[in-house]
Amino acid sequence: MLRIGVLISGSGRTLQNFIDLIARRELDATIAVVISSLAKVKGVDRARAAGLPVEIVRVKDHPDVDEFSRRVVEALERHDVQLACQAGWTAYWRIPRRWMGRVMNIHPALLPKYGGKGFYGHHVHEAVLASGDTESGCTVHFANNEYDAGPIILQRRCPVLPGDTPEALADRVFEQELLAYPEAIRLFAAGKARMPQEATKPQCSETTKG
Question: Which one of the listed residues 62, 79, 107, 141 is annotated catalytic?
Answer without folding.
Answer: 107
